[in-house]
Target: TetR family transcriptional regulator
Amino acid sequence: MARPREFDEHAVLDAAVHRFWVHGYEATSVRELAQSMGITGASLYNAFGDKRSLFRKALAHYVAQSFGDRVSRFEHLPPKDAITSFFQEIVERSISDKDRKGCLLVNSALEVAPHDPEFQETIAGVLVQVEAFFRRCVLAGQRSGEISDQQSADDIARTLLSMLLGIRVLARARPERELLDGLLRPVYALLNKPR
Model:
């Protein structure tokens, strides 16, 4: 009979996310992960498999906690408010991040995805979901007349996605409110109906 786990899976995944987020995938050893998670190496392997399997699970956990949570909170807002609230939260998180960790998904896109087809596909899939959120908001706003239809919803959604990625990368080196807000002003202008 298998023994029940003697740890809170949510808490140890949070610890694994933090370790990968601060140090990256390559620079994080299984020993360091187990230590950060407060479990033994054997427990880590028994519960999660190898480092790669744990990273896969940690990344999914991170996406659910960050993007999934954000979408569930903002998607019910009026379309333009959903988009601006999404970005305002990203700017606040970027500015208040004393460790300048950025975004685990974006960091992984830069570190792991170029060399690993499985993670490239996983990360690309999440970015497609982000783009789809923006597209849903833009389409709803265009239908209601709240958002300009001068550009296609697809093009605006892609522009919003690129701005999100740019902010998350730029903020690691320059987490400055005026800089980040200044990047967003022209993007928000795309949403406005012409006068």
